[in-house]
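Q: Predict the bound structure with BGO.
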Amino acid sequence: SGRFTVALAGNPNSGKTSVFNALTGSNQRVGNWPGVTVEKKEGKFYKDGMEIKIVDLPGIYSLTADSIDQKIAVDFLIHERPDLVICVIDSSNFERNMYLLTQLIEMGQKLVVALNMSDIAEKDGILINEKKLSMILNCPVVKTVAVKKMGIEELKAILVDELRNSSYRRKSEPLVTYPNAIETSLTKIMEKIKTYQTKEINLRWLSINLFLGDMSLLKILNLKDEGIRREIEKIVLQETIDLQKSLGEDIDILIANSKYSKIREIYNSVALRKSDTKASVS
Ligand code: BGO
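A: Predicted complex:
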């Protein structure tokens, strides 16, 4: 029993609103995110003596802070620390949608993945092995067709299980690794900032995003004074310049490339295309 907060994340058009409606029914209220005119929807459902509040995050492609919607989502995850995040994936656009998911994993969020639009994916001849995907991502994965309310009861049951007592333990090795030079710089920054760590902020995720240029994230750390903040900023900037010089490419491109190559590798190992089976038969 108890009360829990679950955030609903996903790309625009992934079917997030449909999942939200299917989970919460008429038990919803609409307001605004603090300080902005972006709509905030909350709803809840009850199951097995638990009250599960669902907070619908804005539809986003990424967790970097370069749009208001993305900043709202990141701020909520950092400061409100939901008990769990549902990541809604449009299965018919798996690789594109997986980008946000890799960031949520990197951030260390406790996750349940809803492979939505699985009817469209299957019509397109794409069959995703959700058991295998679950093993790779180390979190539950459930297929849904939100408009038809398919998979929603299963999703609710999984949420209850996960909130009670997750059988998934976060792996210590990261899902996505970056070129060696970047990893070395990340380690250096993590060493530098770890004494100022607050809350359960994931230092690797934080360091990656400092390299992506979001210095405002330093606010999360418990820095003693302005001098330390400036010192860290200086180190990050110097490392960034050195990396770009030695790798000959912008660091944000290299980081995105590593994520996409991991996503492609995952997709190739979990997705069966109907044309593949035809090809192997003939
Ligand atoms: C329209 N399967 C299928 N086939 N469609 C789905 C599924 C699913 O699993 N889930 C959602 N949809 P949102 P975001 C529409 O609105 O929930 C559909 O942005 C239409 N509208 O019904 O809004 C869903 O919140 C006219 O479709 O997504 C919606 O993430 C013609 O996907 C769309 C056809 O879902 C986006 C569809 C006037």
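A: Residues 10, 12-18, 59, 116-117, 119-120, 145-147 surround BGO (CB under 6 Å).
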